[in-house]
Amino acid sequence: MRGLSSERAPVPQDPAGASHPAHPIPFGRAPGSNGLAAGAHAVMAGVTRIFGSAVHALGPVDLELRRGEFFSIVGPSGCGKSTLLDVLAGLSAPTDGTITFEGKRVRGTVPDGVGVVFQEDASFPWLTVRDNIGFGLRRAGFRGPEAEDRVRHAIDFMGLNDFAGAYPNQLSGGMRQRVCIARTLVMRPRLVLLDEPFGALDQQTRLLMGDELLRLWRASGATVLLITHALDEAAMLSDRIGVMSSRPGRFIEIVETGWPRDRTSAIAAEPAFGEVTTRLWNTLREESLKAMASQRRVAG
Ligand SMILES: Nc1ncnc2c1ncn2[C@@H]1O[C@H](COP(=O)(O)OP(=O)(O)OP(=O)(O)O)[C@@H](O)[C@H]1O
Fold first, then answer.
1. How confident is the model over 62-100, as pLDDT tens digits?
2. ipTM for the assembly
3. Cβ–Cβ contacts within 10 Å for residue 100, how many?
4. What CA–CA distance (Å, rounded) separates 287 from 174?
5. 123 CA → ligand 1 middle, Å
6. Rounded distance, CA 241 to CA 280, Å?
7. Which are the contacts of 137, defined by CB distance < 8 A and separation ≥ 6?
8. pLDDT at res. 39
9. Quick one: fold of 61-113+191-300?
10. What string of DSSP letters covers 121-173?
11. Which conformational region is residue 7 in: left (phi greater than 0), alpha (psi within -120 to 50 degrees), or beta?
């Protein structure tokens, strides 16, 4: 296992070096099987987002996501994390700067190959688990045996076999979130953006879901960007963690964990895990105090 390393912005350039999964891939393809060279997968260059004339929410931000990596973002509340994700996904236009995904400019719409999972339970209450998971496929015109096969695999992979015909109100919060994740991943995105997907879950379920997310990440070969408030979650799951400043959010440190690709939540028992979380907290503490002080000024 490599040791912890950390650096201050700017973000380094490096090939992905992702290993190929040895088992079947229910949700996607092996890294590189789309014919694209390893390296930068998505790039934000000089990106800012200003709301109206007064709220400078983000940036300037430079970020290079490496193909197949698991990258998490932590930062003080209100620093612009969700704004960054929205802009990267093409859901919101940047005020300045450029975003590219697989070498193409992102403008106005979510590019083909990008999937987004939000914190709030986005399952459709009137559809069964099976139909929820197949929703995007049907909308994209996938029908017949291939679509059915993908949905069946997804249900199986997520351990939802006994609930395929159930409705969301018959499921636990963790299961509903699994349905939402499966619904995104069944589209086989090459870049998955997750905004606090486990925010509403209890600690135990979060840990289990984290392991599941790692399993999916390995199986799909996708690049993952996760936004989280939980430092231990970021430390446990990620290859790299970007720490953002208080608003307007910028990257003040990128921590590289050096975890092996086949890691699980058991990594939390390693001494190096404590080093990662301590480093994150040391950087974040000062920024969180700044954010709280400025919120107090606004309130007062
Ligand atoms: N549509 C909008 N119009 C005006 N201001 C906005 C809008 N969306 C976000 N903001 C502001 O931009 C700033 C960043 O918000 P954002 O939601 O990106 O932060 P965050 O880091 O994700 O917050 P949290 O950690 O609390 O979820 C905040 O001050 C927020 O009030």
1. 999 999 999 999 999 899 999 999 999 999 999 999 999
2. 0.98
3. 16
4. 31
5. 24
6. 8
7. 147, 150, 151, 186, 187
8. 79
9. Rossmann fold (3.40.50)
10. ----TTS-HHHHHHHHHHHTT--HHHHHHHHHHHHHHTT-GGGTT--GGGS-H
11. beta
Q: Which among 33, 14, 4 has a CA at the least distance from the CA of 220?
A: 33
What is the distance between the alpha carbons of residues 6 and 232, in angstroms, rounded to a whole number?
17
Q: Which residues line ligand 1 (CB under 6 A)?
A: 51, 55, 57, 75, 77-83, 247
Single-letter residue type at 300: G
| Residue 167 Cα to ligand 1 middle (Å) | 32
Structure confidence by residue, pLDDT tens digits, 216-253: 899 889 999 999 999 999 999 999 999 999 999 999 99
For residue 106, give the DSSP letter. -
CA distances for 151 relative to 15, 132, 143, angstroms? 33, 10, 11
Q: Hey, which of 82, 85, 86, 119 would you mutate to test ligand 1's pocket, going by the most ligand atoms within 8 Å of its Cβ?
A: 82
Compute CA distances 15 → 37, 71, 224, 236, 255, whole Å.
9, 14, 15, 22, 17
d(CA 169, CA 176): 9
Q: Where are the domains of the chain?
A: 61-113+191-300, 125-188
Strand order in the sheet with 96-101: 55-66, 40-51, 96-101, 104-105
